[in-house]
Design a protein that fits this description.
Length: about 350
């Protein structure tokens, strides 16, 4: 069978150290080869020690890839042409560029999906650059279909809604739901990056689905000053001042357990909530749950057929900048959900931005 008939899925995640010995190398890669200061490195090592000495994200990514490949091979159509699902990491082995170089000569079409549903030029844009760089060595490059965003995909919204609804039943009275996502430098707003609206669109869709009456949004895991806020710790203090009875954190900016969830929420944020006397819990993460695999299966099928319900696709060769493609999608989403936004703000005592 020739290459012209073959296609594959590139499944990417952030990666992480598999042991404390790998932390320094992992950190250097994040810093693009620069050596972290001894203080910065020591702080990161201590945080990994607190969560067991390793990141579970690489293993979770490989588990998802195996399950997704099994599911795709069970499809009745075109299974003979399917080359497989290849897992790759941005900051740890196997690196994205290495994996792309390995499969590019074997297939005609690569569908690339990142295990992060919200687009930013700083985040998903970097995955895209690593992917296209890996293709440059091939004079006859395979077609690349890249899923830029799936922030409002019906399957994602349903998955998070079920996790939140189930956890809410364990509280004696309905908790205030605090949605979170990873912070980014404030300058992205001036640059017109769609990320802030991407994450809020997910929150609004979930709140309408569950439904959730009292909810708000905060950023987390900022790496310095002048990053997007409010920060989760500040948000917890504000909720305590407003006499909120309990808080359920829903980190919709992430899909798996890793440092930002296991330390920044489960340890650091939990300690602050305890200090405030604020009952606090977190929803379970989707991780490698078959429900997430099912969502990814649907997204891959959509990407192959060009159906963009709840996802934003970008094909290499498109003249439009990927960020602009997502901006246009966000503007359409905002226009179609204006009525829902007004209802959400009216129902939430502190608005969806507090």
């Amino acid at each position: 069978m020739g290459r012209a008939d073959r296609w594959a899925v590139l499944l990417m995640s952030y990666g992480g150290p598999r042991s404390l010995e790998e932390v320094e190398r992992y950190y250097r890669h994040i810093l693009k080869g620069r050596q972290p200061s001894s203080g910065m490195l020591s702080s990161l090592v201590k945080r990994y020690e607190a969560i067991g000495g390793r990141s579970p994200l690489p293993d979770i990514t490989f588990s998802i890839a195996r399950q997704l490949e099994t599911t795709l091979r069970s499809d009745p159509e075109d299974t003979d042409n399917f080359a497989g699902v290849f897992a790759a990491m941005k900051h740890s082995h196997p690196f994205i560029g290495e994996v792309v170089e390995r499969i590019a000569g074997q297939v005609e079409h690569i569908i690339a999906v990142v295990l992060a549903p919200h687009y930013s030029r700083m985040s998903i844009g970097e995955y895209l650059r690593y992917t296209t760089d890996g293709l440059t060595k091939w004079p006859r490059r395979p077609r690349l279909t890249f899923v830029l965003s799936w922030s409002t995909h019906p399957g994602l919204i349903s998955l998070f809604s079920k996790l939140i609804a189930e956890k809410m039943t364990r509280f004696p009275t309905p908790p205030h739901v605090l949605f979170t996502a990873h912070s980014l430098p404030e300058r992205i707003v001036e640059e017109g990056d769609p990320y802030p609206e991407e994450v809020r669109s997910t929150c609004r869709a979930i709140a309408a689905t569950v439904p959730i009456r009292y909810w708000s949004f905060a950023y987390q895991s900022a790496s310095g000053p002048n990053w997007l806020g409010p920060d989760i710790l500040d948000a917890l203090r504000t909720l305590r001042e407003r006499n909120v009875a309990s808080v359920l954190v829903a980190p919709i900016g992430f899909l798996s357990r890793h440092l930002e969830v296991l330390y920044d929420i489960d340890i650091e944020s939990k300690e602050e909530a305890d200090r405030l006397g604020l009952p606090f819990d977190r929803i379970p993460m989707p991780d490698d749950n078959p429900s997430l695999v099912s969502v990814l299966h649907t997204i891959v099928a959509q990407a192959r057929s060009g159906v963009s319900d709840g996802i934003v696709l970008w094909d290499e060769g498109m003249e439009t900048d990927p960020t602009e493609v997502v901006r246009r999608h966000v503007r359409r989403e905002m226009k179609s959900s204006e009525g829902v936004d007004r209802l959400s703000s009216a129902a939430d005592g502190c608005g969806d931005d507090s």
